[in-house]
Design brief:
Chain lengths: 493, 306
C-alpha cells in the first residue's frame, strides 16, 4: 500500500540528497519532484497545489537552508504536512446506548457490502449486537451476498427479497431491530453514481427519514482524480461523518486518501486491507505518513502482534528460550504465529528500513517457504525436533525429506537455519524491544548482502584470539620484561 | 441510437469538464505560449487521469510547436487531439471469433470493477447478433457472486455453468467450455473472481484458469478482457501490467464511464502496456455497452471545442 507514492517520494528525496547542501534553486527542483510524486500517486490536483504551497512556504525559508541537515528537515516538513492533511482522526463510532444506526454509501464496486460485514464483525467483537440491513435493491444478488456474510459472522441480516423501496425497508429494519434486542444497525445501501440525481435523492431521503448516527462514505483506494468530485457530491448530499478507504492491500498509491479528507473535511476512520472479514483497521495519519515516507509503521505491527499472538504461548516460548530449550517444535509454532499477522511482505512493509524487502520476499514467495518448513518439521520424530543437529543422520534426513516431499539438502538447510535462529533467540531473549528491532535490522541487512547465510550462528571467541589493544599491551609487557632482564644481567656483571 | 451517439452520451460529462477547462486558457483572442500557459495546460491534462508522463509529453509537444507564439485555440487543440489520437491509435478490432466452434472469452479484473455487469452486457450484445452464449460463473470466492451472474443469465436467457461456493474455479471454467462444445454455442464467457493484481497466489490461480480453458479448445481463450473501472487512477497501469503478465490480456473494457470520471488512464495504459480498449460501459442496463473507437473517443472529448 502506498508503496509507489513512497517509492516516488524516496527517489525525489534521494535526488535531493545527491545534491548535498540544499540551495534555494535546487530546493525548488526537489519540491517539483515531490509535486510530481504526489500527482503520479493520484492525489488530486487542487490538493497537491495547496499541499505544495504549505510545504514551500516552510521549505524555502531561511530555517531549512541553515539547519544542519536540510534534506532531513524537508522530509520532516513533508511528513508533518501529510499528517496535517490526513488527520486528525477520531476512531469512535459514536454509538449510543439505545439503537445506533450506521449508514454506508458510495460508488458501485467501492466495497460497501464487504465493509458492512467487516464493520459488523468489529462491532460484534467489541460487545455490541449489530444487525446488517440489505438496502441494496439495485444490484443482482447483493442481498444474498450480505446474507451469506451475516451467516458467516453469525449476525442477523434484515432482508426482503420482494422490497422495492429502500427507504421503507430501512425503516422496517430499525423497527425490527428495536423488537429483537439489536443495538446497532448497519445499512448497506446500493452503489450509485454521484451524478445520478434520482438515486442521490433517494439516499438523502433515507438520511432524513432515519437520521442515522453516522454516515460513512466507502472509497476505493485506487480512485484517481475523480475521487474529489464524487466525495464532494456525497458530502453535499449527506453530511458525511467519516470515510472508509478500501482495497488498500494492493499497490494503490492511495492518493485518494489525501484528497478525500481535504475535500470533505471528514476523516478517514478505517481502512480495508484484505478480502477476509477481519481485514479492517483503524486509520492513523501519522503512521500512514510514516509509511508514505518509508519510515515504517512499527506501532501497527506491535498492536497487531499483541492482538494476534497468543500471549501465553509467547511467554512459554520466552522461558524456554532463556533456558536454551528452544526446539524445532517451538520454531514451528513461531512460524504459525507469524502467519497470523498476515502476509510476510505486508509485515515487512511496516518495519522501518525493510519496506523494500517486502518486494523481494514477494518474488521468493515467503508463504510457500513457510509451508515447506512446517512440512519438514512435521515429518520429524519428537526426538529429532528436540535435538535436530545431533540426532539427524543421513538416513533420517532421507526419511524426513521423503515424508515432507523435499530434497534432503533442504532438511539440512532448515537444521542449519534453526541452529542459527536458536542462537539468535537466546541472545535476543535478554534484550528490550528496541534492541531486538535493531538486531533484526542488522541481521536482515546482513542477509541481503549474503543471502545464503540467513541466520548464521554467531561466531563466539575461542579465547585464543586477542584484540589489537591486548596484543599491544602484551608486547609492552614482554619488552619491559626484556629490559628488566637486560638491566639485571648488566648489574650481575 | 447509433454507437457514436452512445459514446458521445457517455462522455458528455467528461467533455463538459474538459471543454470548459481548456477554454479557460483562451480568455482573449489569442494567448502567448509561455511557462505559465504550459503549466496550466499540464494541470488540465493531469485532471483527466492520463498520467503525468503522457501529460508532460503532450505539453512538451505543444511547447515545441508554439512556444513564444500567440496562439489560437484551434491550433493547440488540433495538436493535442492529434497527439491523443496517435497515442490511442489501434486497429478497430473487437472480438477475434474462432473460425469454428465456440469462441471463449475470459473476463478478469480487480474487485468491484464491474466484471459481472460487463459480462451481462457482452452477452446481450452477442445475443443481439444472433449468437448463442454460455456463461461460466467461476467466481466461487465472493459471497453470492454466482447468484449475481445466475440472475443475469435468467434475465437474458443464457445458459450458465456454476460451481459450489469455494470450489475450484478452474473446474467451473473447464465445465463451461465443455458445455459450450456440447450445446454447440457460439460464445463462452467465463467470469472470474475479482482480485488485486498484487495477490500472487490469486494471480497464479488466474493463470491456471487461463491454462485450463485451452485444454479442450487449443486456441482458447480467444479473448481475455480486463475490466477497468473508469474512476481508477494511475493504479490502472499496474493492473493492466500484472493481469497481462498473468493471463495475456487482449483488451480492456472501460466500465462506469457514465460518471464524471474521465478514464484517461487508458491513455497511459495504451502507451506503457499496449492494451487497446475494446468496449466502454456507460450504464447499468444490459445494452449500455458501446464499441470503443479512438477517433470518436478523442473527438468526443473535445467535441464542442473543435
Amino acid at each position: 500500500m502506498f508503496e509507489s507514492l513512497q517509492e516516488n517520494l524516496s527517489s525525489a528525496i534521494r535526488a535531493l540528497r545527491g545534491k548535498g547542501r540544499l540551495t534555494e534553486s535546487n530546493m525548488r527542483d526537489g519540491l517539483e519532484l515531490v509535486r510530481r510524486a504526489l500527482l503520479e500517486a493520484d492525489v488530486s490536483l487542487s490538493v497537491v497545489k495547496d499541499f505544495m504551497e504549505h510545504v514551500s512556504e516552510q521549505a524555502v525559508g531561511e530555517t531549512v537552508l541553515k539547519s544542519l541537515d536540510p534534506t532531513q528537515h524537508l522530509i520532516g516538513i513533508v511528513g508533518r504536512e501529510l499528517v496535517n492533511l490526513m488527520g486528525p482522526v477520531d476512531h469512535s463510532l459514536h454509538l449510543r446506548s439505545g439503537i445506533s444506526v450506521l449508514m454506508l454509501c458510495g460508488l458501485q464496486g467501492s466495497g460497501k457490502t464487504t465493509t458492512c460485514g467487516k464493520l459488523g464483525r468489529m462491532l460484534r467483537d467489541s460487545g455490541r449486537k449489530p444487525m446488517l440491513v440489505a438496502a441494496d435493491l439495485q444490484r443482482p444478488a447483493a442481498i444474498q451476498q450480505l446474507q451469506v456474510l451475516g451467516q458467516q459472522l453469525g449476525l442477523p441480516v434484515h432482508a426482503d427479497l420482494t422490497a422495492k423501496d429502500p427507504v421503507a425497508l430501512c425503516q422496517a429494519a430499525v423497527k425490527q431491530a428495536k423488537a429483537s434486542g439489536v443495538d446497532t444497525v448497519i445499512l448497506d445501501t446500493a452503489g450509485r453514481l454521484h451524478v445520478d440525481a434520482e438515486l442521490m435523492n433517494q439516499l438523502t431521503l433515507i438520511d432524513k427519514r432515519l437520521g442515522p448516527d453516522q454516515v460513512y462514505l466507502v472509497v476505493d483506494a485506487m480512485t484517481g482524480q475523480d475521487a474529489v468530485l464524487s466525495a464532494k457530491a456525497f458530502n453535499e448530499a449527506l453530511e458525511l461523518d467519516g470515510v472508509i478507504m478500501t482495497k488498500l492491500d494492493g499497490d494503490a498509491r492511495g492518493g485518494a486518501a489525501l484528497s478525500v479528507k481535504q475535500v470533505t473535511g471528514v476523516p478517514i476512520k478505517f481502512m480495508g486491507t484484505g478480502e477476509h472479514l477481519d481485514a479492517l483497521e483503524e486509520f492513523h495519519p501519522d503512521r500512514m505518513a510514516g509509511r508514505i515516507l518509508g519510515m515504517g509503521d512499527v506501532l501497527t505491527l506491535v498492536e497487531q502482534a499483541q492482538q494476534k499472538f497468543d500471549q501465553d504461548e509467547m511467554a512459554k516460548q520466552e522461558a524456554r528460550l532463556r533456558k536454551g530449550e528452544f526446539t524445532l517444535d517451538d520454531f514451528k509454532k513461531m512460524l504459525g504465529q507469524t502467519k497470523k499477522l498476515g502476509p510476510i511482505n505486508k509485515i515487512m512493509g511496516m518495519i522501518p528500513g525493510l519496506s523494500s524487502m517486502g518486494d523481494m520476499l514477494d518474488q521468493m514467495d515467503a508463504e510457500k517457504d513457510m509451508k515447506r518448513l512446517t512440512g519438514i518439521v512435521d515429518s520429524m520424530t519428537p526426538e529429532e525436533r528436540r535435538n535436530p543437529s545431533r540426532v539427524i543422520d543421513q538416513s533420517r534426513r532421507r526419511r524426513i525429506a521423503a515424508g515432507a516431499g523435499v530434497e534432503p539438502h533442504e532438511v539440512n538447510e532448515l537444521v542449519k537455519q534453526f541452529d542459527g535462529m536458536a542462537d539468535l533467540m537466546k541472545r535476543m531473549s535478554g534484550m528490550g524491544v528496541r534492541d531486538r528491532m535493531k538486531m533484526m535490522q542488522e541481521v536482515t541487512q546482513g542477509g541481503m548482502l549474503n543471502p545464503g547465510a540467513k541466520f548464521a550462528k554467531q561466531k563466539v571467541g575461542t579465547g585464543k584470539r586477542l584484540s589489537s589493544a591486548e596484543r599491544a599491551k602484551l608486547k609492552k609487557e614482554r619488552e619491559r620484561e626484556l629490559r628488566r632482564k637486560k638491566r639485571e644481567s648488566r648489574k650481575n656483571k | 441510437m447509433g454507437l457514436f451517439d452512445k459514446l458521445k452520451q457517455g462522455l458528455r460529462k467528461t467533455t463538459r469538464l474538459l471543454n470548459t477547462d481548456i477554454r479557460d486558457l483562451f480568455k482573449s483572442e489569442g494567448r502567448l505560449v509561455d511557462e505559465a500557459f504550459l503549466g496550466e495546460l499540464f494541470d488540465k491534462l493531469v485532471k483527466i487521469d492520463m498520467g503525468v508522463e503522457a501529460a508532460q509529453e503532450t505539453v512538451d509537444e505543444v511547447g515545441e510547436a508554439f512556444r513564444a507564439r500567440v496562439v489560437q485555440e484551434n491550433d493547440v487543440l488540433d495538436k493535442i487531439k492529434e497527439k491523443l489520437k496517435t497515442l490511442m491509435a489501434q486497429p478497430t478490432a473487437p472480438i477475434r471469433f474462432a473460425a469454428t466452434g465456440p469462441t471463449v472469452i475470459m473476463v478478469a479484473g480487480v474487485n468491484g470493477c464491474g466484471k459481472t455487469t460487463t459480462i451481462a452486457k457482452l452477452t446481450a450484445m452477442f445475443q443481439a447478433d444472433g449468437k448463442k452464449v454460455v456463461l461460466g460463473a467461476a467466481d466461487t470466492f465472493r459471497a453470492a457472486a454466482v447468484e449475481q451472474l445466475t440472475i443475469w443469465a435468467g434475465r437474458l436467457g443464457a445458459e450458465i455453468v456454476t460451481g459450489a461456493s469455494g470450489s475450484d474455479p478452474a473446474s467451473v471454467a473447464h465445465r463451461a467450455v465443455a458445455k459450450a462444445l456440447e450445446t454447440s454455442a457460439d460464445v463462452c464467457i467465463v467470469d472470474t473472481a475479482g482480485r488485486l493484481q498484487t495477490q500472487h497466489n490469486l494471480m497464479q490461480q488466474l493463470t491456471k484458469i487461463h491454462r485450463v480453458l485451452g485444454k479442450q479448445i487449443p486456441e482458447a481463450p480467444h479473448e481475455v478482457l480486463l475490466v477497468l473501472d473508469a474512476t481508477t487512477g494511475q493504479n490502472g497501469i499496474s493492473q493492466a501490467r500484472h493481469f497481462t503478465d498473468a493471463v495475456q490480456c487482449t483488451g480492456l473494457v472501460l466500465a462506469k464511464l457514465d460518471g464524471t470520471a474521465k478514464g484517461g488512464v487508458v491513455v497511459a495504459i495504451r502507451k506503457q502496456v499496449g492494451l487497446p480498449v475494446k468496449y466502454i460501459g456507460v450504464g447499468e442496463q444490459a445494452d449500455d455497452l458501446a464499441l470503443f473507437e479512438p477517433g470518436p473517443f478523442v473527438d468526443a472529448l473535445f467535441a464542442d471545442v473543435g
